[in-house]
Amino acid sequence: MNQKMNFLDFPNAVQKSLEMVNPISFTEIIPISEAINRTIAKDIVCVKNLPAFNNSAMDGFAVKFSDAGKTLNINKVIYAGDKGEAVKESLLDNGCYKIMTGAKVPNDADTIIPIENCFDVTNKTVRIPEDIKKGANLRLKGEEQKEGSVLFQKGERITSSHITLLASQGLIMVEVYKKITIAVLSTGNEIKEPWEEADDEEIYNCNSYALISQLKEKGFDATYTGVVPDNLEESKQFIKNLKTYDVIITTGGISMGDADFVGEAFLQNGLETSFHGVNIKPGRPIMMGTMGKTSVICLPGNPLTAMVNIYLFVIPMLRKLQGDTSIYHTFLKAVNSSDFKTKKGRVNVVLGTILNGEFKVTRNNKYGSGMITALYESNCILVTNENTQNIQSNQEVKVIPFDSQFDKNQTNIFN
Ligand SMILES: Nc1nc2c(c(=O)[nH]1)N[C@H]1C(S)=C(S)[C@@H](COP(=O)(O)OP(=O)(O)OC[C@H]3O[C@@H](n4cnc5c(N)ncnc54)[C@H](O)[C@@H]3O)O[C@H]1N2
Ligand code: MOO
């Protein structure tokens, strides 16, 4: 596109990018065994108290607290799963139950003493220690969750903890939002697929594989649709066929070069541009907009640029679209280990590693956005504000790990 770009400042671009997308409303009901990383579409209400009955947390003896220090007759042995008559109250004076972990505790016992804390244990009698605590080791019905309470809310991403809770409720199916559909494509005459022959002047398409695998890491499925040559007509036709997708993500062909046709091809397909150009390093030529119901995200061709920006910029948008309520990046605090410079006047995305509270910048922050290994050497980003020109050693910094949490509230991530 041969026109002058107006660079939007990064916070504004983030706001616009999030305003561009609306949460999906279609849902489906799937087995909990397949629900990991999906977004829940309905609040889940507790239907079975946790625990469902008073039960013992230890193998030992269920006693009345008032019998501390006494030798008691063992009335019966109660096992986990016993019910009815087997767990009915039946204590006489100086009586107790022998009980196993997880077994129902009859209502006439109020305290459990682990077997190893008791004395003179025989098949018939046991001596209870004097110093016991009322209610010890007794798990009370509903103490963790009561029927009717909300266990978790719509818009949460399902983790193994959610699945544990669902199964504990006897729920084997769960309603989730349908997965949004994402098309990924690359552009450029110089691009060859990794399985093709490439001359010295040609390069292998790593962007599409990079983006699709990062999307997968973040719980999204994307379809690879191919490489579009640097040709307006062919780009237009290619894009026309992608209008059924919720999102199209492209890399390359978005800057100011004579062969940068991507923006024009989308415009000629009815794109309404939200912005083109962001005051961020790297990622200045980023373009976003909507084409009918499809959100269009055009990232620059440099692999490092595409990868950091899909994480910083695009994943929050996709989470919003997917119905997630936690969409904003969160940071960890760390101590910076050595001085480095950043470019004043732009928001800088700096690669580094965070380990045990220490941040180490990658390659002294001297790497190009066409580099690939700098990304591999890093496990996090640090984002500066436009006024920052250096980050000092021992300075406390905010760092966003590549696998960081997302939150409902927007927080200030800038350094
Ligand atoms: N006059 C200006 N020139 C450039 C500007 C500018 O503002 N004014 N911006 C520069 C910046 S910043 C970036 S970033 C790049 C982005 O340009 P494009 O989005 O048009 O990307 P391309 O030129 O197509 O490619 C850039 C680079 O990346 C390689 N590439 C592209 N696709 C892939 C792929 N699928 N896998 C691996 N590598 C890929 C491509 O070969 C180029 O080396 O523009 C600057 N120029
Ligand atoms: O903004 Mo471009 O991504 O650096 O090189």
Automatic annotation (TrEMBL):
Catalytic activity: adenylyl-molybdopterin + molybdate = Mo-molybdopterin + AMP + H(+)
PANTHER family given in the database record: GEPHYRIN (PTHR10192:SF5), MOLYBDOPTERIN BIOSYNTHESIS PROTEIN (PTHR10192)
NCBIfam families registered for this protein in UniProt: molyb_syn
Entry GO terms, CC: cytosol
GO BP of this protein: Mo-molybdopterin cofactor biosynthetic process
Enzyme class, first EC level, given as a word: transferase
Annotated source species: Malaciobacter pacificus
Pathway: Cofactor biosynthesis; molybdopterin biosynthesis
EC number: 2.10.1.1
Keyword Metal-binding: yes
Record protein name field: Molybdopterin molybdenumtransferase
One example GO MF annotation: molybdopterin molybdotransferase activity
Pfam families with a match to the protein in the record: MoCF_biosynth, MoeA_C, MoeA_N
Keywords carried by this UniProt record: Magnesium, Metal-binding, Molybdenum, Molybdenum cofactor biosynthesis, Transferase
InterPro entries linked: MoaB/Mog-like_dom_sf (IPR036425), MoaB/Mog_dom (IPR001453), MoeA-like (IPR038987), MoeA_C_domain_IV (IPR005111), MoeA_C_domain_IV_sf (IPR036688), MoeA_linker/N (IPR005110), MoeA_linker/N_sf (IPR036135)
General function of this protein: Catalyzes the insertion of molybdate into adenylated molybdopterin with the concomitant release of AMP.
